[in-house]
Write a structure and sequence with these properties.
Layout: E1 15-18, E2 24-27, H1 31-44, H2 50-53, H3 74-124, H4 142-154
Antiparallel strand pairs: 1-2
């Protein structure tokens, strides 16, 4: 059997022997070439991983237990989500009702305060000084003056 050892074909003097245990024996090669070839074949061989070589004792298991299939059917899940949505909607409705009630209370308080202010103003109105109303002088035309004089003359 011929094979490549360290990148070259073995010469007629060199040969590769396989021992009965499955080990490779390189005969007729230099020590360095045989060491490199051994390293290559050791690295190239596909040994099973350590995990796969473990032997299980009775009653022990390496795998985690598998989750049991759920007994709930998809319609139940839909019922749960529908129920959750209903609960959220009712909570939101309560929140808006509370806000509306608070708004009504605030408006009622503002109306009460306005009525109190108006009643106080009415009580103090007779005691307030009269505001002077500045009358603007009317500019009358001559025809209006004549008209006024005629009216006075008739009296």
């Amino acid at each position: 059997m011929e094979t490549r050892a360290s990148g070259r074909l073995p010469s007629h003097k060199e040969s590769v022997e396989i021992c009965p245990q499955g080990l490779l024996v390189f005969t007729g090669t230099s020590e360095q070439d045989s060491n490199l070839a051994k390293q290559f074949w050791i690295a190239a061989s596909m040994y099973p991983t350590n995990e796969s070589q473990l032997v299980l004792s009775r009653g022990s298991s390496q795998r985690l237990p598998v989750a049991q299939p759920s007994r709930r059917s998809p319609p139940e899940t839909t019922d749960i989500t529908a129920e959750t949505i209903k609960i959220q909607a009712s909570e939101e409705k309560k929140k808006y009702l509370q806000k509306a009630k608070r708004r009504d209370e605030i408006l009622q308080l503002l109306r009460k305060q306005r009525e109190e202010r108006i009643s106080k103003e009415l009580v103090s109105l007779p005691y307030k000084p009269k505001a002077k109303v500045h009358k603007a002088k009317k500019v009358t035309s001559e025809s209006d003056k004549e008209h006024q004089e005629e009216v006075k003359a008739l009296d």
